[in-house]
Structure formats: structure tokens, C-alpha cells
Amino acid sequence: MEEIIVNTEGSESLVYVGYRLESTEKLLPESSVLIITDNNVFDIYGDRFPPFPVLKIRPGEESKQLRIIEKLAGELLSFGIDRSGFLVGIGGGVVCDVTGFLASVFMRGISFGFVSSTLLSQVDASTGGKNGVNLGEVKNVIGNFRQPEFVICDTAMTATLPQDEYLSGLAELIKTGIIGDSSIIDILEKDYEAVMKRDWDLLGDLVARAVKFKASVVSEDERETGLRRILNFGHTFGHAIELHKGVKHGFAVAEGMELSAYWSMNLGFIDKQEFDRITGLLRRYKLTSDHTIPPDDIKDLISHDKKKSGSEIHFVFIKGIGKPFINKIPVNEVADFYRQIIKKK
After folding, report:
1. What percentage of the chain has pLDDT greater than the value 70?
2. Extents of the domains making up the chain
3. N or C: where does the chain have the smaller number of CB atoms within 10 Å of the terminal CB?
4. In this structure, which topology does domain 164-344 adopt according to CATH?
5. CATH entry 3.40.50.300 includes domain 2-161
6. pTM exceeds 0.90 for this model
7. Contacts of 333 by beta carbon, 8 Å cutoff, 6+ apart
8. What is the DSSP letter of 58?
């Protein structure tokens, strides 16, 4: 078990990796606490929740809408929650996003924490303070930055994840290894069987490594004006694929990483051996598949990306594992590269 501090300007957040759901109660106030979760998580773990009222949302992206935030805010009022209130999100990325965004806007901001139940949210949503909801099909376009008081990453909860949800989280873990802590890649290559068996101790080690790296980035650049952009490796193409195909986030990002690594090789930033190492790992964990998007649609899909600035986008390339860098390039150039890939198929 590890405690990792995330320091940002004016706030401090604690991430508890390897702690269990039952540890939550001792981190909470004695009253004015509400729990937000989804139906699936409640059905499996509800009897282990702290003894506070529970609000449930539907699983999936359809719950990341302003109408859901409005409905939940009304529920908070009905329970008498005021500025001294505390919200706890117990679940995956959607629950964390909804809880964090609701807490950050209700009464102009109340305290909140997370129990992160999926590998994807432990590696990604647990650290960084991004909170947001979707606007139609455009992901996370309405949101803010506000840090939780604490996050518990309970790796034992990954045991009940469907296989595709678990693999989706592995994709973000691989991304962190490619752009930051290369030891993550070494472990994922060496301990494939243990990873696929969801060994809790091994996952705890991997999640801690990922959180430490992300914490170091977020502490330097909380609002994604510079260094934090490297965390978007694979996401420009990945978000377009996710929006077009409706696949889970991690699978879309894996396909985006494959494309970004190929482009990095095409431009001479990495050699074929390094490209093959990256794509070989993605394929070994069965994360990549056909990512064909109609050429006429790709520019519009990329244009929805939050990393776009005018007619340009901050695109993340790599010069090797652990060596990401950012180039601001025209959206047209990104779309043209994708069209070239499609023609070769």
C-alpha cells in the first residue's frame, strides 16, 4: 500500500493505492456525506459502503450530461447538503467525473473524494483534478479543474470487472509507460500471465507507478498549458475513433497510440524496433483492431478535440519510450496523415 501526494497550486490531494473500500469511512466527516455510484457497482459492493445515503446513476457515458448533474443537485438539496457537505464517488471514470463536477459547482464548490473501482479510473481519472461532462457526443467539453480530497485505488475491485473494461485500463497503463515510467512497460512485458490474472499486488505496484508519474506532471502543470499535454499521447486519433466507433476509451486510445507511434517512426523520431516493441505489446494484450474511419469524416472528428487551438492541434509524438514531445501542427495535416494510412490498407 502506498500514499501518494498530489500537490497543485493551493491544494493537496492524497491517493491511497492498494487500500480497500472499507478504508473510506475513516477519511470522511461524521455527517453531511452523500455517496454517488452507479447501479452495477452498488449491486456488487453496496453492502460494503460507508453508512451514508447513496445516489445511483446509470453506468456509461449517457450519465455524463448536464441534465444528470441538475437532477443530482436537486437530490443534494433535498438531503440538506450545504457548503459543509462532502460527496464520495464510488465507481469508475464516469462516476468520478460526475461526482467531481457536481461537487465543484454545487454551492460554488464542496469537498469530495473518490473510491476508484476500475483500472482505467485508477490509472487515469484518480489523479489530476479534471472533472467534466459531455455535450452531446463531444466528450468532457464542459468541465473544470478541482482536486479531490482523497482517492482510494482499490485494486481488489478490478476482480469483478468485465474483461473488456479491464483491458481498457491496461491501455492507459501502457500509455503511461510509453510517455513516462518505462519500468511499467518492462513489467507488462515480463509478467503477462500475472497481469492477465489480475494479481492485486502486482496491479498495486503498476498503479502506484502510474499515479506517481502523473502526479509529478500534474503538480507542474495542473491546467494543461504545457507539460500535462503529454498525457494525451494517442488521444487525438483515439478520441476520433472512440466517437466514430463507440468503442471503450482504452481500446480507442490503443489504436491512437499505434497510429501516433507509426507517425513518429514515419518522421524518423523512433526506429522500427521501438515501433514494433510498442505495437507488439498493444497486440499481445489484444487492444488494437481495425480503426478505419471514412476519410471525409476524420477532420470533423479531430476538430472536436479539446487540444485544438484554432486550426492547429497539440499533437504528442515520441522520440523513444519515456521521451514524448509535443508539436503544434495543423489539423489538416493530422487528417491528411490518417487518410494516407487508410489508402495503404
Report:
1. 98
2. 2-161, 164-344
3. C
4. Dehydroquinate synthase-like, alpha domain (1.20.1090)
5. no
6. yes
7. none
8. -
